[in-house]
Write a structure and sequence with these properties.
This protein has 307 residues and is an alpha+beta fold. The protein is built from 9 helices and 10 strands.
Amino acid sequence: MCPLCLGVIVAGATSAGGLAKFAVKLSRKKNNVKESERSSQMSTRTVDNPKIVSRDEWLAARKKLLAREKHLTHERDAIAAERRQLPWVKVEKNYVFDSAGGKKTLADLFDGKSQLIVYHLMFGPEWKEACPSCSFNMDHTDGALVHLAQRDVSFAAVSRAPLSKIEAFKKRLGWKFNWVSSYGSDFNYDYHVSFTPEQLAEGKVEFNFELMEFPSAEAPGISVFYKDKEGNIFHTYSAYGRGTETTMNTYNYLDYVPKGRDEDGLRFTMSWLRHHDRYESGHLADANLPYWPADAARQDHRTNSQD
């Protein structure tokens, strides 16, 4: 399912968590192009047909692009400022999580800070391992924790998998960030990153602030909370789908290089991802691949029924 994780792809856009109906629709659209037609078409990628120019011509083109990059930067700053001005919702429920240190409330997850970022990490109770795309996101996390702390920010990942599975998987991948289990609580359901069988049976669930078809019982997202001096907790922001993409710096680096993310030829975005200890084997432990589109072709990965 996750090329969902990293989000549901918005129509026609590349990357970040692309499962969902958007990725599936994109896959179907690509598959309608016959192989014979595809092979006869000249590639439009610069890397296949580079335009070689003088240094002066390159500089002129680079400055033209720079103007657009600066506009994007200013627009991003403006959106960030608007995000900080969103109204807040007081959290009334007393959410309790299982952690390595025992039961923890949502207030405990702030760990002495006034701001808390929660990453909704896709790891269902019956799954053998967490979503590869969410795991890709989490690979960017540990190094940022010390810097976030300097800005009065705490971080926690939350999944519905039982704590024993979380701890084992966390140890396997060598992660240090705080990761707790919401199993048995309403937390995931209230923040629209888990769906009951009854909700899925209705055909559409609430995700990314709209009703949509969704292929999995688990979804990725980020939620932000603030705790005031009186101990009141407020929900200030949530992002889903590609809204979580900015936390995956590997994609930012790939956007610099000539081949880019190089996902256009895949059956769905992020299908190339594996847990960082499984790229050589390509192994995914869950035979039913609950984090992938149900009808996506799976010939581009190797998996078996054993860990």
